[in-house]
Amino acid sequence: MLPAVTRTSRRGLALVEKMVGTADALDCYRSLSWTVTGFVILEQTLEESVHHRRVGPTRWELDLDDRSEPSAFDTDELFRTTLGLALDGLERRTTR
Hints:
Radius of gyration: 17 Å
Oligomer: single chain
Shape: elongated
Helix content: 55-70%
């Protein structure tokens, strides 16, 4: 029996193949996978950042110490936006 991560990866790749066809599927799947991995790394290292301060469970304030006003963001909202943009791009590839 295959490990769960392998089964999940194969299911994910199969879904992407249905969206874009087999020629580009692996590159598209990797791009999505790296996007998710990047967010995991980001969320796990924000606590160590000198420019970020947690202001809620998923809310952060960014202060670059450059005399500009700090900006706030929500990592969950940012993740949804980024993943949505990536999936929109995959969908557009299918109409080419």
